[in-house]
Write a structure and sequence with these properties.
Elements: E1 2-6, H1 17-25, E2 28-32, H2 46-54, E3 59-61, H3 63-79, E4 82-86, H4 95-105, E5 110-113, H5 118-121, E6 136-138, H6 150-159, E7 164-168, E8 170-171, H7 177-182, E9 192-193, H8 196-210, E10 220-225, E11 233-238, H9 239-243, E12 252-256, H10 262-268
Parallel strand pairs: 1-4, 1-5, 2-3, 2-4, 6-7
Antiparallel strand pairs: 7-12, 8-9, 10-11, 10-12
């Protein structure tokens, strides 16, 4: 059996009882470590906390391992129980759909254990989940690469009065451009986690470039940091206001507010800048 287990958003205790039982009976436990991270997983002892709590050694699965060697892990699941841990919910990232397809093609049984993810936890600010449009990802800009395909999606959501969840880039174990050009041994960039402030700066740059008045400095937004953790931070305000807020440690995400209902506005008041 291949168990794909959601860990939730906070710490090692956010796993469900069913998920914990599956971990305890698995011969090997892998943990996906690139589409997101548990808040505490950013600390040096994050992994050992997990191992202590689950009573099992954990093999960190980075992007390369999952994309290049997932077949090995699936083959292990032919004769063994293998657990694959995912921060949030297993289907918050498309990568894991691919894993399920490959496992089922090889005749391996798959059991999915769901948990909370950023996609539903943002509901805490009071904006109703069924008033959201398409979710967008905001990647880090570089000097030569400034993609803005998210702009048209936000434009469509705004025209329909819908809120937009913006997932912010995390770059963990990304090969440096130089090492990719040279070939041979890969060298990696230091980890980077986009802040709400950087996201807003980039969004405003893209608005200036397109000039369709989709949003601007006065557009209402909600910034989130460490969602689901005890020290989570949520602030509602204009883009200009949020740009100056220190949201602290990662992970961050941002919601661009659409048309609001009075009940939504009442709840948002608790988080006002």
């Amino acid at each position: 059996m291949l168990y794909i287990i959601g860990l939730g958003l906070g710490d090692e205790k956010d796993i469900t009882l069913r998920g914990l039982e599956a971990v305890k009976k698995s011969q090997k436990v892998y943990m996906e470590a690139y589409t997101s991270l548990l808040s505490f997983g950013l600390s040096a002892d994050g992994l050992s906390n997990l191992e202590k709590f689950y009573g099992k050694p954990i093999i960190l699965a980075d992007r390369e391992m999952v994309e290049e060697k997932a077949g090995d892990m699936i083959e292990e699941a032919v004769d063994n129980d293998i657990a694959f841990l995912v921060v949030g919910d297993p289907f918050g990232a498309t990568t894991h759909s691919d894993l399920v397809v490959r496992a089922k093609t090889l005749g391996v049984k798959v059991e999915v254990v769901h948990n909370a993810s950023v996609m539903n936890a943002v509901g805490i600010c009071g904006l109703q989940l069924y008033h959201y449009g398409e979710t967008v990802s905001i990647p880090f800009f570089t000097e030569t690469w400034r993609p803005d395909s998210f702009y048209e999606k936000i434009k469509k959501n705004r025209s329909l009065g819908l809120h937009t969840l913006c997932l912010l880039d995390i770059r963990v174990k990304e090969p440096t451009f130089e090492s990719l050009c040279r070939g041979g041994k890969k060298q990696y960039e230091p980890p980077r986690y986009m802040t709400v402030n950087t996201a807003i700066e980039q969004l405003l740059e893209v608005e200036q470039k397109h000039g369709d008045s989709v949003y601007g400095e006065d557009t209402e937004c909600v910034g989130f940091a460490r969602l689901g953790a005890e020290d989570q931070k949520i602030v509602a305000g204009t883009m200009k206001q949020l740009e100056s807020v220190d949201f602290g440690a990662p992970l961050h995400c941002l919601v661009i507010v659409g048309k609001t209902h009075p009940v939504e506005e009442e709840m948002l008041e608790f988080y006002k800048y």
